[in-house]
Amino acid sequence: MRRGRGNFMGQIRALAAADIPAVARLFQKAFRRTDAAPSAAFVDCLRNIYIDHPLVHENLPSLVHESRSGISGFIGRHHLAMGIGHRQVSGALFGTIMADNRAGHSLIGPKLLKAALAGPQDFSFADTTSDISRTLGQRLGCTPLPTHSLNWLRIIRPTQWLMDQVAQRFRPLGLLAPVAGAADDMLRKRIRPNRQRWFVHGAGSTAKGATAEHIDADRFAALFTELSGRFALRPRWHLQDVAALSRQAIEKQQFGSPFFGAVTDHHGKPVGCFLYHLKKRSTARVLQVVAAAGAEGAVIDALIAHAADNGASAVIGRTEAYLMEAMLGRRIGFTNTASSMIHSRDPEILGAITRGDVLLNGLVGEQWSPMIGNRFA
């Protein structure tokens, strides 16, 4: 009786390369509500992310739940090499969690999350949790991070932005985008540069005492590494690792072309860097922004002005605690579509998080993943 019950309940084990096709089929069932076979491109994508990726570590593998019917659950994990003060710590980045409830066991998801939290890491972090996953995480001791869980939005060209939103549902209306853009240009010219107005960004607005310029992925990686040193809890990555991750983050077909930028002050000193994607006459989607202490406002202004000059209708990104004060008064709105949460018993890590002295989200999160911003047949 016991053995039969154990077989029915299934077991949790480390993901193996041979499991990837089954995980891809589970993804089809869990998120696309179909039993259709996944494409070869999607299977290869999952293999690259969860088996061959540089952030995959043998001590923190992704986990699967295996029942009599096969793979019935999955949770993705990646290793985050981090530093806190002068100490090296290990983080676990949680990604996709999914379960096939048709396997006959409704606790597959909770069991997987509990097993993943019980690993050897000093802290666990996720930045794409749904409301259901967040509630489950809280029951298991995870703490939501409100200041890391909001999308910030700055509208630049209001008519064009509204037209873009509508055209996503009714594509023929996208033909009116040039007309909307012309109307916005007339409106923007009537607003004094650098005057903060809701729902529009004045033409010619610039960052006070700072300028932005286009750079390549290698220069961005160098600035990211330099500027992240200001945080108590920060990535402990080699320069080539940041460059490789940045290049992978470029691949966002649904979001448009990538733009790497550096922000310098009036002395020519670098005070910030950013990466966003932009489709013509659409929204610039910020994947990463890092600012030096005291330059947060100037970097945000430079980022928005840079996107405006490239024709963006709006700029959207994910909040971070250290940027929140600088966003006040800049006519930025906030929404919540996914949440960040953390789990740790390390008092030094928890203290840094409470102070907002951490660099999380963006590259130090799941936003680099090809699963975000790409469509697979």
Topology of this protein?
Elements: H1 2-9, E1 11-14, H2 20-31, H3 40-50, E2 63-67, E3 70-84, E4 87-99, H4 108-117, E5 123-129, H5 131-139, E6 143-144, E7 151-155, H6 158-167, H7 177-189, E8 210-214, H8 217-227, E9 233-235, H9 239-249, E10 257-265, E11 270-278, E12 283-291, H10 296-309, E13 314-318, H11 324-327, E14 333-335, E15 339-344, H12 347-355
Parallel strand pairs: 4-5, 12-13
Antiparallel strand pairs: 1-2, 2-3, 3-4, 3-9, 5-15, 6-15, 7-13, 7-14, 8-10, 10-11, 11-12
State the gist of this model.
The protein is an alpha+beta fold and 377 residues long. It has helices at residues 2-9, 20-31, 40-50, 108-117, 131-139, 158-167, 177-189, 217-227, 239-249, 296-309, 324-327, 347-355, and strands at residues 11-14, 63-67, 70-84, 87-99, 123-129, 143-144, 151-155, 210-214, 233-235, 257-265, 270-278, 283-291, 314-318, 333-335, 339-344.
